[in-house]
Amino acid sequence: xQESAINLAVQLIISANPDLFEIIGLxxxxxxxxxxxxxxxxxxxxxFLATDHFRGRQLINVLxxxxxxxxxxxxxxxxxxxxxxxxxxxxxxxxxxxTAMIIAQTMLxxxxxxxxxxxxxEDLYNEYREQFLSLQLTRPQRMKALLWDARYxxxxxxxxxxxxxxxxVGAVIIVGGNIEHLTRVMTTAIAxxxxxxxxxxxxxxxxxxxxLALLINILLSxxxxxxxxxxxx
Amino acid sequence: xQESAINLAVQLIISANPDLFEIIGLxxxxxxxxxxxxxxxxxxxxxFLATDHFRGRQLINVLxxxxxxxxxxxxxxxxxxxxxxxxxxxxxxxxxxxTAMIIAQTMLxxxxxxxxxxxxxEDLYNEYREQFLSLQLTRPQRMKALLWDARYxxxxxxxxxxxxxxxxVGAVIIVGGNIEHLTRVMTTAIAxxxxxxxxxxxxxxxxxxxxLALLINILLSxxxxxxxxxxxx
Amino acid sequence: VADxxxxxxxxxxxxxxxxxxxxxxxxxxxxxxxxxxVVAVGTGQAIRNARNCDADVLLVHAKAAEDAFVADGxxxxxxxxxxxxxxxxxxxxxxxxxxKQSDIHNALKNISTVNALFASRGDNSGTHKKEQSxxxxxxxxxxxxxxSWYRSTGSGMGATINTAIGLGAYTLTDRATWISFKNKDDFxxxxxxxxxxxxxxxVTLVNPEKCPSVSQHSAQQFIDWLLSKKTQQSIAAFAVDGxxxxxxxAK
Amino acid sequence: MHNVIDINANKPVVGTTRLPTKAQxxxxxxxxxxxxxxxxxxxxxxxxxKLNLPPQxxxxxxxxxxxxxxxxxxxxHGILKPxxxxxxxxxxxxxAKHRLTQSMVFQKPVLLRRSAKANIDFVIKQRGTHKxxxxxxxxxxxxxxxxxxxxxxxxxxxxxxxxxxxxxxxCQPDIVFLDEATASLDPASSAIIEQIVSDEAALGxxxxxxTHDAAQAARIADEVVFMDAGQITEYASAExxxxxxxxxxxxxxxxxxxxxx
Amino acid sequence: MHNVIDINANKPVVGTTRLPTKAQxxxxxxxxxxxxxxxxxxxxxxxxxKLNLPPQxxxxxxxxxxxxxxxxxxxxHGILKPxxxxxxxxxxxxxAKHRLTQSMVFQKPVLLRRSAKANIDFVIKQRGTHKxxxxxxxxxxxxxxxxxxxxxxxxxxxxxxxxxxxxxxxCQPDIVFLDEATASLDPASSAIIEQIVSDEAALGxxxxxxTHDAAQAARIADEVVFMDAGQITEYASAExxxxxxxxxxxxxxxxxxxxxx
Lengths: 233, 233, 251, 261, 261
Ligand SMILES: Nc1ncnc2c1ncn2[C@@H]1O[C@H](COP(=O)(O)OP(=O)(O)OP(=O)(O)O)[C@@H](O)[C@H]1O
Ligand SMILES: Nc1ncnc2c1ncn2[C@@H]1O[C@H](COP(=O)(O)OP(=O)(O)OP(=O)(O)O)[C@@H](O)[C@H]1O
Ligand SMILES: [Mg+2]
Ligand SMILES: [Mg+2]
Prior knowledge:
heteropentamer, A: 0% strand
């Protein structure tokens, strides 16, 4: 089975199956968009929580940590109920669109990025704290400086977010509906083939998705390594 | 809908529904077991990769980062094919058992723990490296010391792993089968209620799962805070 | 957005998974220029979504639930569209000797007496409801008693078949899903042909009075087209591996 | 062979580059510490600190390791809150605006993960406009012009300390706190730093510096605060302190002996 | 008022606690550097280093900030690989076993995120059995007995440096590298450390120490290596070096002047 899956994956790629490329394209669009949004929100939140001690901070940290356990299906349902035509945002007509999928994934991934980046930034801030106090940096200045100086470590956090986005199916299938040519992405296609019993095709699609992830990771890591080589130790 | 979900969640808890408790129990058993196993493998791997520069290390890092994008369904299928009746490990009779679910989740979460802990440990090792070289610590000694000194930061990594385990459905439903009284956990129950169209119950279960996660997080964080208070800055 | 050139169909999975829409919809789309988007989910979820107005057309196979949908004012009218039948699939060895039975009641009785594993969808889908009514008819209460050989998978049809195959268990499935299913392993249809296994598909227009967003015109056009003689013939002509999957019966 | 070193040999060599002149210090700052104490985890680190420092000049703080010098400096600078007591500048508590006129070089300088010049630019930018001329002059001043683009954390120990000093001067402060800022400098660099401090002090900048180098304090400080075990045991003009220390602790310190209370 | 400090005042005070005696150094170690050079990112930091050091005694390495002292020390210690050249101990390359007889105190001590005593225990345990007696004696020796349980990274600067030294001695080394190990110590603590170094050296331990404190080097070093811009410009007995330095760079250094090549 596994070998036939590999063969199938290679065939699919070589034959340049247009449906496959459409699905890959949408997967990338949805995942990358939601990762970028999650990074915007998650890194800001993480840096905000890391850079000062205010009342209730510990509570928010715990909440965000707990939100990492939010099941995708539940996130999907929440978003579904909000944007369903009978929901409060139904008039926007977002249900079963890529936009809805991006919203759901962003909600899912932001806590992960926020919790992990808070930890990374807090560790660095432990080192920088007194110096920053002395310079009387404003909070945004502190956040910006820390995010910049921690960028190499934060890349791993971003990759974890990307991994979650690329592999996620529970939320996108509810709000996207897995509609052919409209909202079908790699993971929903894999789920579909699994339910059709076409396990070889499901595995083949999985392999293609993984190769894609590998490609992106190689790209980002080599950028990272060459940047680090001009080392700001 | 959301309010009725909250009511329902409260009712379910108050009525001490035995089915619910069975499901919660199995969820905890499966998730905690797979997190513990993932920590054993992932932290070792992360510490190993962080503590020395050997040929091919960068490649392994990239691979592990990419494996964070492994879709749960694909992991589920891999395990399914291995332990199904006709698979190479079929004779073990593991399919549709909690053990199978633990195996699949461990495979899913280990890359996440490995990649994130590698980053955390590498950052610390940058600081300790020369001192450790001078002391001529063996690799296991270095790994042990770094894991210990980074333990507060690694807690967040562990919580990310736990979040993934508790919220995961794609892999466990394939190898566990969501069989009532046998392999049904919170997330597969949520998926089931969703497919039945009982969204209120699905949400209620989601809320219960989240509360559970919150409880665990509060517990671990307060342990962590009180330990840190006897501060080893 | 009413009456856009797109309509949304909430559908059962068996029609989608068998490739039925891939075969049928392009004909409609070229004729009318109306794009049909299909969301394939469990029957329960499909009806729930339609109740939330997230559909123009409902196409499922759970007559009682569909009638309730119309009675509650969410649907305009339900039409019979086509039918096929349910079958019992099981491992090649047929441990419960199901294939030799003359009717479904005996077949199920056999399963229960030899304690052969049986995988149930357990998800309140059309298939699950049918299965329950069959057990009910032979006075076996799988819900309250939950015999050890009875495994409720709480999953869709495909996942349940995968589970049944993994367990070596019998299960009830609609013929369309089974014929187009790829992971058959050593499984075969072990019982079929009892009239009690009749499986009726229906189509319903979502009520524009309840749901103003419904593209009433396009949706009605789609339903009319489905029920038309020519389309009914096309449905009859749809086959997988040389086997007909659906039998049109619009009145 | 011992004691061939003549302390006079270490005379400051005048730096040849002048920093861009800045506006005269906007306000002179008289510092007043009232009954400061500082405890952490129930452990008393400072107690009973009372001190009035004049608005200008160079004050040296000396004392044994662990006496509480660094903590006191941070409290003066306003980045550590005393457990009890108040810090007043010209009779007023320090506010954000006043604190912008202060800067500090920490005992362990914290350098950003950036190039040497970016470390200085960071401070200059934060305080308003970007001034490459000021940055370059500072780098020349501390002898790091040829290391401007090197990652700061790859500089040698002494180079890092000099960079930290340049960074502290980059915001053109009125008040500068130095915590053993020449501890790992070579004698020539120490002399240059001493010269910079003397020059800036002459222009009106106030310096409060911790140092273990008695010779250095004797050369440039106007007055000395001596601390022992969390208390100030002596506050005198440098001349008086080095000629005739009063407290036993200070005497022991200057003689290189431990002092057991 | 200047120059009232008499350098004689800083005479070492004899430490009163003796460390548990260790076996006599198992082998004397003659160090030989052959044509060492070190480059990083195409930048040459050390070049043309040739040096033979005797198996015992105290060698001071001196030179301007950035001269390459710390890097050379790390190369000698074997934790940095030279770009070219070889480091030989008794005519042999260093192996793991030999390196276990060496220890080093870094210019910026790296302390584990543990208590002071756990930092020492860590090293002792790593080398074999756990010896609380040795640990306690070391803590007393460096004056940290009352801080044993304090998190190491919350110690004062000088306390941290003393802890690092205690930790380096905990593995009872035959060869010790000190990189400005007394830079932030008070005079009394410096004196104690000097005494420890002299005592241990007398028992046969070899010390190679970087210091900017000429008086200190004059007091305890047997010989001096002077570095300038990545090269060794002078290697002489301490007596000769301090009385009559030969190179211009060393003369300038001792006089507290910069030396421009
Ligand atoms: N957070 C803390 N918890 C416990 N003790 C602390 C803490 N911070 C500082 N101390 C102790 O307070 C004392 C004073 O510290 P401080 O850093 O001010 O000393 P110092 O006078 O600057 O010494 P040095 O000359 O070594 O720099 C030290 O003994 C130190 O161990
Ligand atoms: N990784 C590196 N990249 C570039 N330059 C470096 C690197 N490491 C060290 N240097 C440079 O090499 C020179 C020698 O460094 P080293 O730390 O040996 O100086 P040092 O003699 O110990 O000085 P100090 O007295 O300040 O401690 C310095 O000028 C430093 O900037
Ligand atoms: Mg201090
Ligand atoms: Mg150095």
